[in-house]
Amino acid sequence: MLIQKQYSITIFLFLALVSAAFGQPGNEVIEYNTFIKAAPGKLTVETSCLIQVNNKQSDWITAIEIPYRAGDKLDVLEATVLDRNGKVVRSLKKKEIVSRSFISQGTFFEDSYVSEFDLKWHEYPYRVKYSYRKVMDQFLHVASWYPVLYTNVPTRKASLEVQLPLDYKVNIRFPDAFTYKADTLENSCALSWQILGVEPVASEVFAPPVQEGIPHVKIVPEEFNYELKGSFKSWASYGDWLNRINTGLDVLPQSEQFVVERLTRGITDKRELIKILYHHLQDHTRYINVSIDAGGLKPYPASYVCTNKYGDCKALTIYMKALLKQVGIESFYTIIHADANPVQFEPEFPSHQFNHVVLCVPLDGDTLWLENTTSHLPYNYLGTFTQNRYALAVGNSGSKLVKTPSLSLEDVLENTTYTYALNQEGEGTLNILANLRGEAFENLRYLQHEYSEKDQQRAISESINVTYAEMLSWQINQEDRDLPLLQLQMALKVNSQLRRLGNSLVLSPNALKLPRLESAGSRTAPLRINYPVNKQDSITYLLPFANQYKTKLPLDVAIESKFGRYREQYQEADGRISVKRSFQLFAGNYPIEEYPHFYDFIESVKESQKKSAIVLNPN
Amino acid sequence: MRSTIVTVAIIFLFIQPVLAQELSREFGVISNNEFEFKVYEKDPEAEAVVLFDIGKSVFFDTERGYDIRFTRSRRVKVLSRAGTNQAEVSIPFYVDGFGKTEKIVSIEAYSYNFEQGQLFRKAVDQSAVYEEKINDRWKAKKFVFPDVKEGTIIEYKYVLETPFHFNLPDWQFQDKIPTLYSEYTANLIPFYEYVFLAQGISKFDFQESKPSTVVREFGSVNKSYGQNVGSGFEFKDMIHTYVLKDVPAFKDESYITSREDYLIKLDFQLAKFHSPRGGTTSIISTWPELTKELLKNDNFGKYTKTAERLAKKLLEQEIAADQANKLEKSRQIIEYVKNSFSWNGYYSKFSSKSPKDFVNQKTGNAADINLFLTAMLRAAGIDAQPVILSTRNHGKIKSDYPFEHFFNYVIVLVNAGDHVFLTDGTEALVAYNRIPPRCINERGLVVKEDEVPWVDLYSSIQSMDNKTIGLSLDPENLTAKAMVTVQSTEFEALGYRNLFKNDSVKIREKLLESGFSDVSRIRTFNFEKTSLPYTIAYEGVTALERIDNKIIVSPFLNYPIKENSLTQKKRSYPVDFIYPKKELLISRLEIPAGYKLVGVPEAFAVDNDLAEINLKYTITDNVVEASAQYHFKKGVYVSGEYARVKYYIDMIVKKFNEQLVLEKI
């Protein structure tokens, strides 16, 4: 019934050169202004935005979402659409604003919401203008303000104005990028920041998180009232507040005390005690985050975990602390910013720079670290998410900043052996034996622990860096749950592993997976490698027909640089060809000026891998 | 014979000491057997199993008449750590936004553990049952079971009351984990007559329909010597029970329309209302009836009528009046609607707001847009009809049953003189006379007076993706400069338009990712002219491989598919590619001076009813032209054709990636 027409295609069509419209952004934030009025126990934030939409592809930005928490009071003050002449062509009606729960990823429930509305128009360009007011009575920041709405949209002009009572003490951090002004009014002071032309930032490889690259203003009150009165005068004073809100939470119910007693009877070695109780936590609890009321900061008590056998990081840590306390071991509730690539910590600026909690246990001059939300990681293991950074250890008799241990090259070693047995057609078997530590260990261990067998198989098959391979069997071995080491064994059926070049055969060892880097010219961020990389591969080809050929091996390679090193070594004997390869990258922070050298290093590794083909010429 | 059976039974008992039928099916009643059950023999890898899932719907008296009370009790055994996520439960319920709402009136939930010879039971605290507001229409009750680990049994029971009679709560017998026992009971009263639709069920393990022993009353019943002298009367429920045992876990496969088409389930739809006061109203019994209802509906037929007046005004302002050609006029109107209104992402066959609000707000759901489009076409004197359909993710319609809820979307059938076509106003990047892939799902119903025509939604239009590559080799520097033109039509073009949004930064990024080291002169053609092929042209530099003094060239660069996405050995569902697709790769290169061609891969050809594959190399003087094409002739392949389709893709992966070898003379 439908009449359709097919288009015939002209090959090599270079007719009218109608270029796509490049240059002008599809949308832009013309003005973004925030006005904050702070007083003890009341924070009023008024935000107003003027956004221009230049084409239909970019009108996603007019779907406005305003987040708020259950206790906040939110009012949308204005929401209009302006046509290209600045004339108001549409005003939002109250009934068009809808709200829904906003539950962040990995959280089961929280009392957060978003108010949503849409401001669309059909003639471009057009502008949308909206403003809203949020009033909060509990807060730890007066402002944590970035002059952008979206990191991928340019902002033409942004300003922050903060009005404070004269006797209200705050600590402020901001960079020179802002034009700053301070005025004293009758009984308050008015501080203002302005910035023009903030360009979009894209995330780059081995770079700090994008928010570090955007200038921002942080203001914290010296004294605050969040559940209890507290102070940001020093890390010790903030720790003291945390200590007070945690008071009385680390008490085990009687029944759990019996369990501890049963588990630890006759054991006196402190390390052994810690291990037993940590295993008990891992084997009987799960991470579930329910964040309501002050739940963002105040932990549930240990008894909550005893009843439910689940909790968030705070509750599980309090519970672990209570278990240790029961056997007379002192430990410290330690708040930290968990992220494989965290925003740089500011030790000189006491404020809430954290999103996670671990437990720190000093023991005979040593320090043990317990991550209490993962039942798959070994005892005393802080992984890529919490290694090498500042954290605030909270104690009854004082709190202080501490530094977590960093992952060393040995800690992240991934040692993989590939053994191919091939016929002349390039068909055969491949056995892989990988001994994994570091990030690879963490990922595989998580998979093994939390995924069904089917999903494990799927994920492992997808991770193999070999083409034309079909998984026959696989197995994960862990010698000791307290060692950060996992062994993955795989048997695969392979084909097309040999390329034919005339009468010759070519073997191309699978390449290391290396990230694609921005060229030196287009890089905008400095270089940051949060933790080292250390890979050692040994590839062996068993070729029963090898005596019919003469093998031509590539030259050995050794590349050294301040960022890392790379080696390739080739050997041949009795129908057995072996390739040994190692790649190391050191952790570190480098200014952008050094980036070209890093780029050259990685490119030279890639380049040498392109020349790694092994040729078998007929005798 | 007899003795063999006995032996088998004994062995069976031996290896499986706990048989499913010995497990309790009563909420709150639990025995040792449930704890001894450690592995489900029929699916030993299962991380958890549903021990029972029992649902019941009954009609209960309210002030207004009857509401439905749905009670569900469900027990799950966690078999491994991966199964502990069963502890997190979310029960959605519907709020219609006009005052009617479903209610969850109670939730009871317990976890059971058996440790050191003792049974531990823990209840979910009522204060730990949270309510999530998913959107304006849906909310959910959420809770987490306490004390859940490997071996734990969890069970919950909830009661949901609903004033919506049109669909009785449906029943899904199948889950992502295996289900040992699933039972649904519907206690129906004589006033509401439902049609039952079973999917994926050849036979129930138990099925029964019998009258209840309980006598109910309608209106006032006054007994005098056993005779009712009141104005009301007595009646009995009819109890329908359905049971399935050992239902396997649902396995998702790639290239299917929707889980909804394959899940084992039972669906109920109100068919007739027999008034207690006498007389029968057919709710929906025929397609003409359904059509008539839609035309009368405020958010469908009436909406379109109302919208016509407004559309007429817009038409006068926005569209040139002098256009006499109906096809051209239709195109202008469709493009006007596409460019002036934004789709909010919601599927619907009913409008969500008044035409005035829609025009004012410039955004709406699929029905707001397409019904308005219908009105605007009509206002211009063009014959246009709404067509209701079920989108791919919503499952297939069952055309034997005229049920309105099978449909969740509406598009438009345009009759512009000689040209009859389907259109959809939600996607600016789809040509005016095409519908987006989500709508390609069997058949759609044209909603018009006095007629019930169906329209085929299958796409027989072939989508093409043609890549022309000109390579000039620089063997000294081991690089090749490629001049590439990618020209695509129909859905393939839509794919590129959506992927890149004509943004050269995104195009460059994608090319750099695919292995080019330097990309320049990116040009695109016809991005906005959606009826024409979309073309992307660029120049890029790519590396050549040198092995043993030979130069290796991949004539088709990185374009050929590298991996077969059909990985299963066997297939039970059809392979649904949505539309027929043809890809053509042509590459031309000059052999550089001082080099000769030593290795040319073999040609390859297949042509039959399913597919055509053609790979060939032509060498004239010092120019090599390689051409590779494949054409999957059908949009949908039945499962019996799976093995062949899989094999063809394997061959494409293997053959199209072969390389040319050059040697220094």
Kindly summarize this structure in a few lines:
The complex is a heterodimer of chains A (619) and B (665). Chain A is α+β, with helices and mostly antiparallel strands. In chain A, strand 1 (27-39) and strand 2 form a beta hairpin.
Q: What share of the residues of chain A lie within helices?
A: 10-25%
What fraction strand of chain A? 35-45%
Tell me the distance between the termini of chain B: 80 Å
Strand order of the largest sheet of chain A: 5-4-9-2-1-11-14-13
**CATH architectural grouping of the largest domain in chain A:** Sandwich
Oligomer: heterodimer
**Beta-strand content estimate of chain B:** 35-45%
Q: What is the spatial order of strands in the main beta sheet of chain B?
A: 5-4-8-2-1-10-15-12
Question: How many strand elements of chain A?
Answer: 39
Q: Using DSSP, what is the number of strands of chain B?
A: 38
Q: Main sheet of chain B?
A: 8 strands, mixed
Query: What's the end-to-end separation of chain A, in Å?
Result: 67 Å
The domain tally of chain B reads 3
**Tally of separate domains of chain A:** 3
Give an overview of the whole structure.
The complex is a heterodimer of chains A (619) and B (665). With 619 residues, chain A is of the alpha+beta class. Chain A has three domains: 27-221, Immunoglobulin-like, CATH 2.60.40.3140; 231-403, C8orf32 fold; 410-618, Jelly Rolls, CATH 2.60.120.1130. In chain A, 16% of the residues lie in helices and 40% in strands. Chain A has an eight-stranded mixed sheet with strand order 5-4-9-2-1-11-14-13, with no helix packed on it. An eight-stranded mixed sheet of chain A has the order 28-29-27-26-33-37-36-35. In chain A, strands 23-22-21-24-25 form a five-stranded antiparallel sheet, covered by helices on one side. Residues 1-22 of chain A have low confidence and may be disordered. In chain B, helix 4 (301-318) crosses helix 7 and helix 5 (326-340) packs antiparallel against helix 7. At the A-B interface, strand 6, helix 7 and strand 30 of A face strand 6, strand 22, strand 25, helix 9 and strand 27 of B.
